[in-house]
Every structure is written in C-alpha cells, then in structure tokens.
Amino acid sequence: MKFTKNNFFRSVRKTKNNLSRFFVYLNFFNKDKQDIKQNHLDLNRKLVYSLSTKKLPNSEQLRYLGKFLSPKERKIIQICALVLVVNLVFLSVIFFKKHIISSPLSGGTYIEGLVGSPKYINPLYSSNRDVDMDIASLVFSSLFKYNEKGELVGDLVDSWQKSDDGKEYTLVLKQNISWHNGDKLSADDVVFTIQAIKNPKFRSPLRNSFSGLEVEKINENTLRFKLAQSYAPFLGVLTFGILPKNIWEAVIPESATLAELNLKPIGSGPFKFKSLTKNKNGEIKTYLLEVNPDYYNQKPYISEVSFKFFPDSMSAIKALNDNSVDGISYSPFSSRKDLFAKNSLNFHHLNQPQLTAIFFNSKNNEFLADQNIRQALDLAIDRELIVNEVFNGQAREARGPILSDSPAFNPDLKKANYSVSEAEEKISESGFVKISLTDDNLLNKDSEVEGVLVSKFLEKASDYGVEAAGTWLVKKGTKKNPEDKFLVLSLTYPDSADNALVAGKIQEHWQAIGVKVSLKPLLPSQISSELASEKNFEALLFGENIGADPDVYAFWHSSQISEGLNIANYSNQEVDKILENARFSTDDNSRFTDYRRFQELVTNDQGAIFLFSPNYLYLQVKKLRGFNGVSIVEPSDRFSSISNWYLRVNHRFVW
Questions:
Q1: 59, pLDDT greater than 70
Q2: Across the beta sheet with 168-173, what order do the strands follow?
Q3: Do β-strands 109-115 and 304-310 pair in parallel, antiparallel, or remain unpaired?
Q4: Which secondary-structure segment (H or E) carries 249?
C-alpha cells in the first residue's frame, strides 16, 4: 500500500480503536476475576460464620493469633498493650485521688512497748522515771505543755499575763473541764497540787523548783502566781500534771507513795485508766488506757492505748519484730541491725535538747587542768565520723553549751576542728614526748627505753588496765621534779549500747595521738553516786537534758559545783554574773545577747568537749498514721499530738 498522509492517519485510528477494544476486554476480564475473588471471600465468610456466629474471636481462637502475626506485628501489639495498661493505671490513680477521700476513723488499740515498769503514775513523783512520765502525760493535763514542734503552749490555760517586773503571772483556765470521774476541774485543784509539791511531807522531787513561789485563787478559773524574784523560764516550770483536790486531799502526805491512786490514777487528760495486769510476782505486765469521751480538747481517734513492759531494749525490739507491739519508746541507734521488716516501720527522728559532752575532773588527773591538753583532746576527736557511723547521721554536732536550734545560740562560735597534727603540737607544747614500747622491751622491766624505766610503764599500765606495748606520752623528769609522768586517762560513761560505741571511737581517736585510754562503763544504779559531789571520774562522757529554755544556770554556775549539775567543776566569775542576769531578765533580746557572750567564754576556756546532740529514735508501725512530731523536750512529749493519731481509715467516694 502506498504510504500517504491519509493512509497514515487511517492506520492510527484503526490501531486506537483496536487498543480501546483490548482495554475494554481487559477490564471485563479483571472485573470478572475480582468478582470471582469476592465470591470466594463471601463463601469463606459464610463458612467461618457457620462455625462461629460471633464477630469477635473467642479465647480459643485467640490462642492461634500468634501464628498469623509477624515478629514486627507482635512487637507493635505488645507496645500498644503496655501503653494501654500504663494509661489505665495512671487514669485510675488520678480518678481515685480525685473522687476517693480518706479520713481518720475512730477506733482501734495502739500498743506500745516500754522499757521498765510503772510505779508512780502521779505528777508529784513521775518526773524521775520515763515510764511513769509517759503514762502520766496521757492521763493528766498540765497548765502548759510542749507541742509537736517543741513549742510551749497552753493546755489547761486559756490565757495569761505577766507583770512588768516579771514577778507576777495571772493565768485563766479553760472552762467546763472535767476529771475522769465527772467532777469539775477548777483553780482549787491547781492550788492544791502546787501546795502538795511544796509540802516536804509529800517528798516530791519537784519541790526545789517551787521555792519562793506563792499561788492564790482569784476565782474558779483564775490564778495568780507570785515569785520572790523574776524568773524568765517560769512558764516552762508549769508543765507538771494537775491532781484532783477532792480525791487527794483525803490521802495522808506521808503515805502518798503507797496510795492505790498512783497506779489507778484519775486525771483530766485525753485517756483514762481502764485496767492493768500483773504476773505471779506482782510485776505489772500490761497497762490499758481508754479514751476520755469528755476530753476538753480534740478527742483522740484511737480508742485505747495499751502499754507492755520489758526489761531492756532488746526485748522490746523483739516484741516489735514479732508484731506484738505497734511501737517502742526510745530505741538505741545501735539496735537498728536487730530490726526485721524495716519497710513496715516508720523511723521518727525527733530533735531533743540533749547535749552530749566530755567533762573533765582535774582533781583526779592533774594534766586535765592544762588547757593545751584539753584542746589537744578536743582536736583529736572526729565528730563527723561519730555522728555518721554511730548515729547514721541522725545527730547534730555541738559547738558549745547551747544547741544550734535555740534562739540564744551564738552562730559565730567556731566549729570544732579535727586535726591530729594540731593535737600533737598542743601536747608537745606541754612538754610531752612520744615513746614507743615494744613487746621485746617488756621482757626486762628493769631496762630503760629512752631514759625511762620499763617498770614505770608497766606500773601505769596496770593502774589503768591498758596495754603496756605501744605509744606512750611521757613528760620526763627534771632535776627539780625528777619523776617521769605519763599521759593516761580513764573515760567514764553510762553503760548503754550507743554510749559504748561513742566511747570506743573516742578511745581510738585519743590513742591515735598517743594518749593511753581505759574505758569505765557505769551501770544506771552507779551514776548518781559516782557523779555526786565527789565526782569520781577523770573524763566523763555524759548526755545532759538542758531543757527548751537557754537557761543553763544549773549546769555552769559555780554555785552548782557541790550540789548541782555543774559536773565540769567550771568556775568563771563573768559567766556567773551573765547567768544570773539572764535568768532574771524580762527582755528576751537582752537575755539572748548575754547567752551568746556566755558561750564564747565557756568554749574559750575549754570548759568541756562539746560533741553532739543525738535525735530521739521513735519506732512505730506504718499502720499507725497521723504522727507529726518534730521535737521533744522530754521523751513523753512524743505523745503531745496523740489526738491526731489513727489506726483506721474511712474511704468515701465523691463526684
């Protein structure tokens, strides 16, 4: 065929028509295939539905899901499931926090273990025994008390006023307060209690604190106290329990300690006596208090408080481990290793005004009169190590005779340094040299080591009960005084687990600078006699409760050396004058200025080695809630907020 333009376009049109026809056939064929495929799917669905009419797979079918999923698909599903669970938990927590309200519910019995046994649940006598004070603080009310922060607040007192000269205090009592027997409490009861304390026939240990005090009733709810001399911390004295006059006035004062009321008391506190049990030997094993329904302040949630008594801390800890008690009074820090299930316990570390220091008696060891020696002994002690290793950090280092949380504390006092080299330098300045004694030297007691007879070393080692071998500090004799002298110390301490650990650390520190040290533990029954006017010790590791007020007259005034608490035998005329002025001052700012100067003088004189203030470790099970204590003045103050404690919880759903 001849190629022409017309022939070309005719061929193109023909080809286009053929292609169109082809695609039509092709689409028809694909559609036919799709229809066939759809028919197969429909048949499969009918078959599946004939076997299971439910559209969702059942548990039996889900078992085979993994066989049809690729690893990637499995991973995606697992991640999605995890995200879903986390979100559900999160949303549930938010929902319950928003719509579930928890509140304390009344009821339940709190059981506490105490070391010791009750004897006098009576404010006239309880101040000398922790067990008695613990129980008495719940049974009796006082004019003032210390709250959970260690602050002095009114208890029975509603309001009070002080005269300008600080010699008169007028107190107004709260109204409508009842005793546990239903009688009304009035100003007469307060007057009676104070007169009983002052009466020598009652033999109350509180008697000396009320010398020169007069009290009179103005009306049923008002009292006036008159002091012979103004006394700044006076209100802190009024924290003793008040006795019911109409019951105790029938008791003969000379026989008061024998009265049944000492163990079955009637007070006006948040709890009242219910029962006690004794063993065959007559020892009290349990003591039960029940809530006072007519308590004038917030009524406690806890229905009953039961006390169990143990001979020592280890027995009390065992009872806590066995779940037979819900809490125990003070627990030594060294006993932590004996506790089981620590996660089920609350460890309450409470600040307390206890100052632990080392006091010296130069009458029993002449070298302790040397200030260089006292400074060297101070420099050699690593306080930070003791606080961390013995008390697990739960103690405050002390810089002086007043603790750092007191408003009268002097922040400019230098922190005690720990420096072995400086300590050794101080000792060298006092004329002592180090002499090392080996076991070979000890074989011949008549030989000499650096000009000193071995027999002298052996004699001194025997006197103090220390090892003869090792490093000694010796001040060699001179022509004027030919006797060789050895720096050896006896460190006395009240025997307890914590004190033993601290004393052991101090012994290590002092022996590291060459001072030989023997340890002398004292049983509780020995302390009062050993620390009496004779002060039968050389160096004494001792903790003093210096109280909430900065008044430390009893511990540092020279008049208190013979019969008081000045166990350091410290005497400084300027300090005496400061302490006198401060306790009689009516201006707190002036008082605090005086006390800051007092701290400078005592620390400069090296009156003692001030170490630390340990926290009071109070253990309770976590099911006991509501405890909010921070500081205590006396151990019994841990109960100051017991009205907030609860064992049961009420959960309410709200929209």
A1: no
A2: 157-162, 168-173, 222-227, 213-219
A3: parallel
A4: none
CA 105 to chain centre: 27
Q: Please tell me the pTM assigned to this model.
A: 0.82
Q: pLDDT, tens digit, for every residue of 483-515?
A: 999 999 999 999 998 999 999 999 999 999 999
Phi and psi for 415 in degrees, rounded to 5? -70, 135
d(CA 371, CA 381): 16
Residue with tokens 């009796």: 140
Identity of the residue numbered 625: R
Number of residues written out for the chain: 655
Residue with tokens 């799917």: 41
Q: What value does the CA radius of gyration of the chain take, rounded to a whole number of Å?
A: 40
Q: How many CB atoms lie within 10 A of CB 205?
A: 12
- Residue range 302-345, pLDDT digits in tens: 999 999 999 999 999 999 999 999 999 988 888 888 898 888 99
Class for domain 109-351+616-651, per CATH? alpha beta
Which is nearest to 517 in space by CA: 552, 493, 536?
493
CA atoms of 437 and 454, how far apart (whole Å): 8
Q: Which two tokens stand for residue 324?
A: 């037979």
| CATH code matching the domain that covers 354-432+487-614, chosen among 3.10.105.10, 1.10.287.130, 3.30.420.40, 3.30.300.30 | 3.10.105.10
Element (H, E) at 559: none
Q: Return the number of other C-beta atoms located less than 10 Å from residue 367's C-beta.
A: 23
Gap between the Cα atoms of 7 and 146, Å rounded: 121
Convert the pLDDT of each residue in 181-215 to its tens digit: 999 999 999 999 999 999 999 999 999 889 889 99
Evaluate if residue 33 carries a pLDDT over 60. no
DSSP 8-state symbol, 419:
-
pLDDT tens-digit map of 111-139: 999 999 999 999 999 998 999 999 999 99
